[in-house]
Amino acid sequence: MNFEKLKSLISSGNVPEVRKSVEDLLMSGTEPLKILNSGLIEAMEEIGEKFKKNEVYVPEVLMAARAMKEGVSILKPLLSSEQLGTKGCIIIGTVKGDLHDIGKNIVAIMLEGAGFKVIDLGVDVSPEKFLSAVIEHKADLVAISALLTTTMPSMKTTVSILKDKGPSNLKIMVGGAPVTKEFAEEIQADGFSEEAGTAVDTAKKLISG
Ligand code: B12
């Protein structure tokens, strides 16, 4: 089965045609999981690669994500919860005191597009809220965003509380414009990425151990 057409419809953000293409593939007997992995997820991975190389920008990523979500919504009822999110569960949010969410949303989209189950806690998230979400969803990884130098200490507190009180195998990844590799190491985060495309690679490495 050739998924090139579906992938190009996703990259151009064509929601109605993505819906039609997914329905056609299902009608022709293609397995829902195959459509998810070889069509939708691969399409978002390609967008992620292009975003990394500055070949596409934020609006294209958001349009592709909308088209991909449409495809996922058709497949969701046909897939078991094990088939959805098999790669692991990630809790994501912007730290306490910080309301910036554009970059965090792109990271969430890319992670979801790569097949992770993503729970987005939104903005201004307290350490306690991160911790209870980790426990509730048995998360493998927490991804924390900060866009202000004034909220970087809040990132440090969050990492420290999660390390102290979270499960021992929990991984933590941080990012956001003012966050550097050195800062990530200083606050003992397990991973850091400068942008959404490489964040997916970092998450894969951290979760696979
Ligand atoms: C949009 C914006 C806002 C919007 C936010 C809207 C929203 N829904 O997000 C509004 C108007 C609300 C806002 C408010 C403020 N802002 Co503002 N804002 C910006 C602006 C212009 C763009 C940020 C953005 O979205 N960038 C685009 C995204 C795609 O990039 P990104 O966030 O960096 O994300 C990428 C990476 O960093 C990374 N990433 C991000 N998160 C994560 C997480 C993980 C885990 C990983 C791995 C990677 C990762 O991947 C992303 C995609 O590649 C920046 C300036 C700039 N050009 O960056 C200022 C900026 C961040 N804001 C700034 C300031 C000062 C403020 C205010 C304090 C202003 C004020 N006096 O009220 C308030 C603070 C409000 C608050 N409590 O948070 C300063 C911060 C300075 C500093 N170093 O601390 C900046 C840099 C502007 C400036 N030059 O002064 N802001």
Structure notes:
The protein is of the alpha/beta class. It is 56% helix and 11% strand. The protein has nine helices and five strands; from the N terminus they run ααααβαβαβαβαβα. The protein has a five-stranded parallel β-sheet, with helices on both faces. Helix 1 (4-11) runs antiparallel to helix 2 and helix 1 (4-11) crosses helix 3 (32-52). The model has no long low-confidence stretch (mean pLDDT 93). The structure holds cobalamin. Cobalamin is lined by residues 58, 97-104, 106-107, 143-145, 147-150, 173-178, 193, 195-196, 199.
List keywords for this structure.
single chain; 209 residues; alpha/beta; Methyltransferase, Methionine Synthase (B12-binding Domains), Chain A, domain 1; Rossmann fold; 2 domains; five-stranded parallel β-sheet; 9 helices; 5 strands; 56% helix; binds cobalamin
